[in-house]
């Protein structure tokens, strides 16, 4: 699964340079490329370093990953970090190659990493974390802190649900099954039952709706986690789930 670029895709470019700060601290060089509407610097999704994100006129958004030359040389002659290898495995091409790197960076040398399945301790920890925050969100909701409750239910708890969805997909289809990252293309790889239920798991900024969505999110996580536990031969924390669910039902429902 490698969807091609479309009209809404951004452009990912990598600059390999001996002076990364030049491109990070000053945005003047962008004027030689086009007319930028806005730009800012943030950490790359791969964790490899910083990137400058730019929105040019005609709604063209470009991510410039800035990599230090010597670090890239080390990776070329050694081992590429798995997160970078996974990105390069999806395809790339050189626009300008002053250092002859292209011959040692063929696409077929990069393979998406096999996703590790969780240990039983990691699985239980995620379940406990999720259930803890379900009660935490319910308490905030009971106190009238709608912003905090919704941020937890539709933010942090959804990220924990996403982790479990990823484990579920790998437990079901194998560790090489492509789940992309950060929920990208989730609609094409997640379980159909989950996709049917997800619309009910997000809330409006309204006390009653946050309560409803919180309950649905817990229900959905429970289903996915139990399915994953069955596939991996792990134990789902039923007792903890029952206690947290009973507390939420008795205090906010």
List keywords for this structure.
253 residues, alpha+beta, Beta Polymerase, domain 2, Four Helix Bundle (Hemerythrin (Met), subunit A), 2 domains, four-stranded mixed β-sheet, globular
Description:
The chain has a 4-stranded mixed sheet with strand order 1-4-3-2. It is of the alpha+beta class. The protein has 9 helices and 4 strands; from the N terminus they run E-H-E-E-E-H-H-H-H-H-H-H-H. Helix 4 (120-142) packs antiparallel against helix 5 (146-173), helix 4 runs antiparallel to helix 8 (207-232) and helix 4 runs parallel beside helix 9. Helices cover 49% and strands 12% of the residues.
Task: Indicate the topology.
Blueprint: E1 11-17, H1 20-25, E2 36-43, E3 50-56, E4 60-68, H2 69-77, H3 82-88, H4 120-142, H5 146-173, H6 186-189, H7 192-197, H8 207-232, H9 238-252
Parallel strand pairs: 1-4
Antiparallel strand pairs: 2-3, 3-4
């Amino acid at each position: 699964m490698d969807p091609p670029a479309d009209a809404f895709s951004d452009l990912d470019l990598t600059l390999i340079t001996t002076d990364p700060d030049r491109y990070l601290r000053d945005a003047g060089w962008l004027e030689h490329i086009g007319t930028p509407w806005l730009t800012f610097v943030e950490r790359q999704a791969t964790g490899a370093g910083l990137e400058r994100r730019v929105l040019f006129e005609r709604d063209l958004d470009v991510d410039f990953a800035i990599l230090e030359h010597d670090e890239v040389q080390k990776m070329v002659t050694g081992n590429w970090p798995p997160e970078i290898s996974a990105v390069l495995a999806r395809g790339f091409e050189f626009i300008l190659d002053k250092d002859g790197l292209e011959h040692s960076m063929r696409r077929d040398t990069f393979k998406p990493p096999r996703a590790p399945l969780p240990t039983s301790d990691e699985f239980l920890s995620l379940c406990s974390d999720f259930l803890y925050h379900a009660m935490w969100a319910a308490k905030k909701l009971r106190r009238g802190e709608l912003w905090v409750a919704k941020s937890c239910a539709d933010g942090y708890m959804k990220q924990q649900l996403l982790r479990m969805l990823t484990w579920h997909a790998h437990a079901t289809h194998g560790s090489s099954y492509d789940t992309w990252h950060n929920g990208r293309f989730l609609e094409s790889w997640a379980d159909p039952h989950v996709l049917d239920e997800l619309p009910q798991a997000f809330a409006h900024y309204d006390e009653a709706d946050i309560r409803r969505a919180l309950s649905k999110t817990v229900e959905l996580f429970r289903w996915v986690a139990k399915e994953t536990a069955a596939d991996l031969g792990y134990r789902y924390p039923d007792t903890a789930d029952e206690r947290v669910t009973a507390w939420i039902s008795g205090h906010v429902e």
